[in-house]
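A.,

Following up on our hallway conversation. Structure tokens first:
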């Protein structure tokens, strides 16, 4: 069986920096509350007409392709993770395929929220390990800012999320015990609505209902988050899924060189770090600059950590995520 290996990484974030101070001018919030509860100092928001989920994903992908040292026509398949596609359908996978001019290769959209990038990586890993494909472009990209309630009413959610994109090239390798060692995927749909956007959808609130009611108090199309329930589940599931990955490979916490947690909340990352007793140099966080970018957060953080020389060949890297669904996941990588 083949191995799959990350051979190129890239990220792109919009230029528009939105600080906590900027938010405090449009809603009742303040830097102290946001930093204390989330660790976030600023995030990026797109400017309409400049960036979309796809264009950001394409920019990140071009960097990853160049770093992988492959031609774009060497890519066999695209897996795109997002909760914020520009169209209801089709998903952004085919838009990337078109914008990169990738002939007629297949494009798959993954919608597993904050766990989306690891789910996408896992799908790509299976295609490579079975020998079906040699090079797969995996993207996580989010434009969340236009969908947030940027008033005091929505402050507990809107201060957290940001926009950005990250991409990886996953390639076939024949070196045993290297590259992606294993991935672990979980879900608990009983909590589906606890972190959700339920409208417009074909269930509770149809587009036609929203148009008919024209109700300014209708909040169903803004994200709803039961923050405390998410927090409590996140700290348990992050730890569980990291331990599961280590056990599956007969490794232990001492073997971890770098943990890249999904950037949900700095307090969640710090809780996991202290639970696992990892020193500061073995965990990478950048939520302070970008907020929570959902499916984009892991590839952005992974790229920044790699660019900073914090990930070296032979290192054991753990990716772990938790989010809406609830879904959670991990990936263990021998770099
Ligand atoms: O990838 C998964 C993504 N989601 C997460 O990881 C979220 C996990 N949960 C959390 O991070 C936390 O629950 C939050 C940071 C979202 C909220 O922190 P909390 O300690 O659970 O606060 P809370 O929602 O219980 O609100 C506490 C107070 C409330 O005021 P009162 O009722 O005590 O007077 C809120 O109205 O803080 C108020 N509040 C704010 N104040 C200033 C809520 N949001 C804000 C805000 N600025 N942005």
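Then the amino acids I'd put at each of the 335 positions:
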């Amino acid at each position: 069986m083949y191995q799959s290996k990350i051979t190129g990484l890239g990220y792109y974030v919009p230029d528009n920096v939105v600080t906590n101070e900027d938010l405090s001018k449009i809603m009742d919030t303040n830097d102290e509350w946001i930093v204390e509860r989330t660790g976030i100092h600023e995030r990026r928001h797109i400017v309409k007409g400049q960036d979309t989920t796809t264009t950001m994903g394409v920019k990140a992908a071009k960097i990853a392709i160049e770093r992988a040292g492959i031609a774009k026509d060497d890519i066999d398949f695209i897996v795109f993770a997002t909760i914020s596609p520009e169209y209801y359908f089709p998903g952004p996978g085919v838009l990337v395929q078109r914008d990169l001019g990738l002939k007629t290769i297949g494009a798959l959209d993954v919608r597993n929220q904050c766990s989306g990038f690891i789910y996408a990586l896992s799908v790509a890993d299976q295609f490579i390990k079975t020998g079906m494909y040699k090079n797969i472009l995996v993207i996580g990209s989010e434009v969340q800012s236009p969908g947030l309630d940027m008033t005091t009413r929505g402050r507990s959610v809107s201060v957290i999320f940001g926009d950005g994109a990250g991409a990886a090239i996953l390639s076939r390798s024949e070196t045993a015990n290297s590259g992606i060692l294993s991935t672990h995927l979980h879900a608990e749909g009983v909590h589906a609505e606890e972190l959700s956007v339920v409208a417009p959808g074909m269930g509770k609130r149809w587009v036609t209902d929203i148009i008919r009611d024209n109700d300014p108090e209708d909040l169903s199309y803004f994200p709803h988050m039961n923050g405390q329930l998410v927090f409590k589940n996140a700290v348990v599931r992050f730890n569980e899924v990291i331990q599961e990955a280590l056990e599956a490979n007969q490794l232990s916490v001492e073997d971890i060189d770098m943990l890249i947690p999904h950037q949900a909340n700095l307090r969640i990352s710090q809780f996991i770090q202290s639970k696992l007793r990892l020193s500061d140099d073995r965990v990478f966080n950048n939520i302070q600059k970008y907020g929570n970018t959902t499916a984009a957060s892991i590839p952005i953080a992974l790229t920044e950590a790699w660019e900073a020389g914090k990930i070296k060949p032979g290192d054991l890297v753990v990716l772990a995520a938790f989010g809406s669904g609830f879904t959670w996941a991990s990936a263990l990588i021998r770099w």
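Residues 29, 33-34, 37-38, 114, 155-156, 159, 225, 227-228, 230-231, 234, 264-265, 268, 292, 323 surround oxa(dethia)-CoA (CB under 6 Å). Curious whether your intuition agrees with the design.

B.
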